[in-house]
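Hey, I'm writing a tutorial for new members on how sequence and structure tokens pair up, and I'd like a real worked example in the thread rather than a made-up one. If someone can provide the structure for the chain below, I'll link this post from the tutorial.
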Amino acid sequence: MQNQKWNRIRWLWSVSGFRNSLVHNRLLLAVGLWMCALAGSAWGQSNGIMWQVYTQINGSSLNSLTNISQNSNFPNNPDSTAVLTGIFEAPSNYGDRFGSRYRALLIPPMTGTYVFWVQGDDAAALFLSIDESPANNIVLAYNATTALYRAWFVYPSQQSSNIFLEAGRRYYLEALHSAGTGDDAFAVGWKLPNGTFEQPMSVSHLWTYGFPNTHGTKPVITTQPTNATVPEGLPVVFRVGVSNFDAITYQWQRNGANMQGYIGATLTLPTALTNDNGASYRCVLSNSFGPVTSAAAVLT
């Protein structure tokens, strides 16, 4: 009988470079296919997690996965791509010497404090952005050496600090996993503000991120920056939001000129200065179909 965990996976691209001994190859042979069919609306907006797999990794550390001198295919040329559905957990006993990247947009169901966990054999790390831009990723939790199947408390670093999230906002979530030999288990869990534990977490609040835009549309802005008035010396925040789930790049501008290093969906100025009075701020958003420019917000 087929391992039930495989029922949570929708294969999207052809699988290349895998050895016949791998579990998922046996699954493909069982249905007589070496080419994976597109499942449902996975190219667009759907609950789930993009799962990218890189084979023939020489080592079990995350550096073996992400260092382009050791793995020239990372990050843009995975050997296969699929969508995880149901829970944020990869199948065990997937294979040997491979690495994975997981990408999604997290939309929290309630405002409050969350705690995250990550578990991976042999190594894993979990990242979260302050907004929907990968450029603002920070490390939440990790294990540098083996944590076996659903072993959430082997190392203190597997648990994040308290993370405040707002309901309905979009946050980019990413995880990395490197496997040498063994059962290759990987999972992500969290605790919600109401005290509910999900270990692993459900994907009901996760949306696939990074698949190609097949609608031929530039970024569609749904939240424009708004004017702000703050006392001198205090911080100010401008935000822009889109409805797209493909990869978007951001570039903020002040009075029409690019602001170096401000490349996320959120612009935070730590201190409002006198010469900022009357300045306008806008964002140029781009995808594979071109750029769009947000409305300008004025700071006073």
